[in-house]
Amino acid sequence: MRHRLLLALALLASFVATARAEYPERPIRMIVPFPPGGVTDVVARLIAEKLTADLGQQVIVDNKAGAGSVIGTDIVAKAPADGYTILFTTPGLTINAAFRTSLPYDTEKDFAPISIAGQVPMLLVSHPSLPVTDYRGFIAYAKANPSKINISHAGNGTLPHVQMELLMVKEQIQVTNVPYRGAAPALADLVAGQVQAKLDNYTTAQSFVAQKKLNALAFTSAKRQKQLPDVPTMMELGVKDFEGYLWMGIVVPAATPQPIVDKLAAAARRAASAPDTLARFDKDAVEPVGNTPAEFKALIAREIGQWRDLARQTKITVD
Question: In the chain, what are the domains?
Answer without folding.
Answer: 27-119+246-314 (3.40.190.150), 121-219 (3.40.190.10)
